[in-house]
Amino acid sequence: MNSREDQKASNIVRALSLYFLRKKCPQTNVIITPCPLSYTVVVSGKVCLSPNELEEIINNLNRPKTPELEYYYDDLIVSGTIDNLFVLLGSMVSDANVDYQDGLLRIELTH
Amino acid sequence: MVEISIKIVDCLHAWKTPPAIAVSAEKVYALKTNQATFERKYKFVYFSLLSFGMIAYAFLTTKPAQLFQGLYRIYFNPCHLFSDFVAIGGFGATLVNIALIILVELLVIWRSKGTQTGTIITSIFTTVGYAFFGTSLFNFLPILLGVYLYARLEKIPFNTLLLQAFMGSAIGPLINYIAFGLGLDPTLGIGLGFLVGLVIGLITSPLSSAFLRFHQGYNLYNLGFTAGMIGMIAVAIMRQFKVEIEAVSVLGSEHSLQLTIFALILFLSFFLFSFYLKGWDLKDYRKLMKSSGRLLTDFVQLYSSGMAFFNMGIIGLIGLGFLKLVNAPINGPVIGACITASAFAAIGKHPRNVLPLMIGTSLATLLHGSFQSTATILAILFGMNLAPIAGQFGWLAGILAGYLHVAVVGHVLPLHAGFNLYNNGFSAGFVAAFLVPLIESVKRIYESRTNNE
Questions:
Q1: Residue range B295-322, pLDDT digits in tens
Q2: Which residue among A94, B111, B283, B376 is least packed, with the fewest CB closer than 10 Å?
Q3: Could you state, in order of their start, the residue ranges of all structural domains in chain B?
Q4: Do the Cβ atoms of B319 and B338 come closer than 8 Å?
């Protein structure tokens, strides 16, 4: 892992934290697991989501990985708005798992 | 109370062997992009047909000797803004120049196992547009090679840098100027120019990524902004050495009809290719037009290649229709701008977010300029690159951004002495960086007051 990969993991955390804050989550938990060739970021917290919102998050996070997001556009995920956040994240990560039970949203991303 | 707790788990020592997730980047892309792979070969066929069609047309309408003389004039001359290749080398030679660039790009995409996402389609057609007035194989290759070297040095897959490799050619005229404009011995000039091209390729990737933060993705031509900054630094250094750079304006009008027909055929081919890929299934087009268009809104990924090509055709026809409406001069740069404007309809532009910009730029032209000026027409067509501002903040913000763009674009040209072909992207970066924080601030104040009431 190089410093740029560290920066990417940090950006993912920052972007997801902003999402949970905008959703008025009372407590957001973040777990970052650095591994030799990847990072896993898990962000969870209680938020209110409609079935459509949840479906949109799942669909967007499971978008095909885009090479351009690997190097060029990755910084855009921290540029302030959350409207296309999950599209950008989905195009950037290798694996995504979303769990929503009893109001607790858990997003696990592997980059 | 809002609380965020962060826990970092160190598993570096726990894994002795690489984990299962550690497959190569190419494999990940392949696993997740079955549909893209299916469409990939059709896009290769489309671009190949386009290239060979242009070469065939050039050889059918122009004598080979004339073609090679034209290509020689295109390749070996200082070609900063505005150098109309159609006027310099002829229509046939310009088509061959464009076709050769597309074929090299296809080869690079194929060899690097690149996916043909919206950004790559955009970068191909952007170089097509600029190959009418500045981008040639001569200045394209050193920058491409420089970006490739950078990928090797950073140990990252080259296919993650294709956009920079293709659109880095925005600053290509600097190579030509060093090679042929400084009055150096041709061998020394070409060698020095090539070396400068390599350096530009090496620095383009890290700079372009950093400059995205400057305008937060609201300027679609970010590589234009990057090229402008590189050009500005290069010109400053050259002026330290007392190099005087004269402005160039080589514009022709004798090929207007041929250029219009070429653009029309190209845009119609977008519709035909869209129909071939998707049929006339446009139920999602209304949804597409609701997107802000802010980077990165890749319509190929979000919808489909067919939808992206359809949208490109629409924007191309809007541009062409506008040219006819105001009776604008038709030359290489103007048609190149029209094609580039349509190219970005694969990653953000659509009629709803470009029309406010066109109103703003036209309004500025009516008040302070003329529709008969090539520079002004380019500002109007390229001004569409601020589409995300209209898409995100509405029509009024879009009109204001368009007006400001026309005001700023002429002032930034001397900074890089016309070496940056994407001068409008350079200007738009400043407009976006200036406007967006102000609009967001006004929005926050309005929202806060509305919530208090």
A1: 888 898 888 899 999 999 999 999 999 9
A2: B283
A3: 2-249
A4: yes
